[in-house]
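As noted in the main text, all predictions were made from sequence alone. Below is one such record, for thioredoxin-dependent peroxiredoxin.
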Amino acid sequence: MAVVVNKPLPEFDAQATGGLKVSNSSHQGQILVLYFYPKDNTPGCTTEAMQFRDKYADFVKAGAAVFGVSRDNMKSHDDFKEKLELPFELIADTEEKLCHMFGVVKNKIMYGKKVKGIERSTFLVGPDGILVQEWRGLKVLGHVEEVLKAVKSMKAAQKKAA
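Prediction:
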């Protein structure tokens, strides 16, 4: 089952750092930001993680939980999280279940060879479990601010509706 904007997330279960289990219903009532990245400890992924880290308090204030997702294993994630002092958890999708569900596995050309890789993408899920917005094939620069802006406007819309 693939994800579709304006539809509920399909059922899933995933393991994150800190012994946390994440599922389609584990963060009901909370805005959820899932950002997929190619690999721990690579330049672009390190920059993106640090930008989410630096804006993390703003995400929490706006009512959002943030999770980074890659195919790296838990040990790699624990080391990456500790090294960068990340305040959010990282999901180890070693079997690519979430990556395939969110459609972020893409063929890439690296050093002249075709390889399967993760397309840098972010997904914004509303408190009701519905996928609200997606950013695919994105550039790191300015992206975290754009996601934060979307989270804040979602939070403002919730307040008006209440």
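The first strand starts at residue 13 and ends at 15. Residues 43-61 form the longest helix (19 residues). These features were considered when defining construct boundaries for the mutagenesis experiments described in Section 2.9.
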